Amino acid sequence: MSGALHMFAMMAGSGRGDSLIAVAHHDFPFISVYPWSNGYGPKYVDPATPVDFGMNSVTFSSSGGELVATRYNAPYIVAYSWENGFGTRYADPAEPLDGSAFSASFHPSGNALAVGIYGSPCVRAYAWTNGFGTKYADPASPVNGFGYDVAFSSTGNNVAVGHSDFPYLSTYSWSNGFGTRYADPATPPTGGVGDISFHPTGNAVAAGYEVAPFLSVYPWSNGFGTRFADPATPPTSAVADAAFSLTGNTLAAVHSNPPYLSVYPWSSGFGAKFSNPETPISGYGIAVAFN
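Structure (tokenized):
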């Protein structure tokens, strides 16, 4: 599934200086981080203990004190402390992943890390306290295929995984480990889900996927509600990434065919798609974020 991976993360400064932009990329040093304040600041010094090629995604913890990168080569997931620059590279998990990691998501409390992985059960999770802790038991009711994306809800009571095989989108309760798998959506996505985004209030979950209509949103309240009507003007191709604005009143999606970016008002359903930017994007969209 092309373009499904999140190659950058943006973090607002929480007592740690300006906002930051972290990028996972193909060539050395494979992870680069810049301060951001209406423009790039000087690039931070590369990590003292770097990794090699094979990056899939990068994300900060909610506190901003850790930076995690997923990879398609062993050790599949790496993590660094962060304090206005790369700190110590944490020890690899004592119970390592056994396949490529596509994405990672910190619990809002910062005490757990979920990982979307290649192969069943699509999602795994570790306790987190200044590094990888014990691996939580895998879900009792796993899903098959590749776990493309994983996300905790804003409340931290649920964790969702977008995956390659039917029903493409699966969600579990969470309380210091995987709980019950919720019933599948009555109208599931029509193809592999490469991106999941919870609404900031936690009352909706968006899924970007590889088959028309490419973007769907479901009401969420400890289970899927009836899928909202598809946008009147849907994205033109597979959605690689979707994101709600911080206020939750806008939903943006990037995709592989022109105009590459589709943005909608959101209020318990899609509004009319906003006009395309006056200066359009010049290539296929990979990731999108609001600041």
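The chain is about 0% helix and 40% strand. The longest strand covers residues 19-24.
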